[in-house]
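Table S2 (continued). Query chain:
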Amino acid sequence: MKNHMDKEVYESLAEFRYQLKKFLHFSDLEARKVGVTPQQHQLLLAIKGFPGREYATPRELGERLFISHHACVGLIDRCEQLNLVTRRKNPDDGRSVLIEVTEKGEELLEKLSEIHLNEIKRIHVFQDVLIRSEWN
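Corresponding output:
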């Protein structure tokens, strides 16, 4: 006979999923309040949060955002029109470009990140993020 998980396990998983969805909903609303779409906010965060450097390629960003390369290029185009990101030639590969966050994009991202870290602190989720952050 197959072992069944305890009810508490299902409750914990359901609660965790609920809190994630609730946080993502909060995040989407906050992005819109400052005048960007949730996808634009996620793009800025993916660039600034890219491990080990301050830029990323469209292909890397598409992977991070779980969107196609084509959709990512369109998102980058829209963010570039809003002066949130900039493109520069990739010195290591002439076929690709590097995407960086502009000063305007950084200011907006910093504002949103502070709001998000305060919400994370308020709801006591993702404590390891708080432990590593200066917002603790």
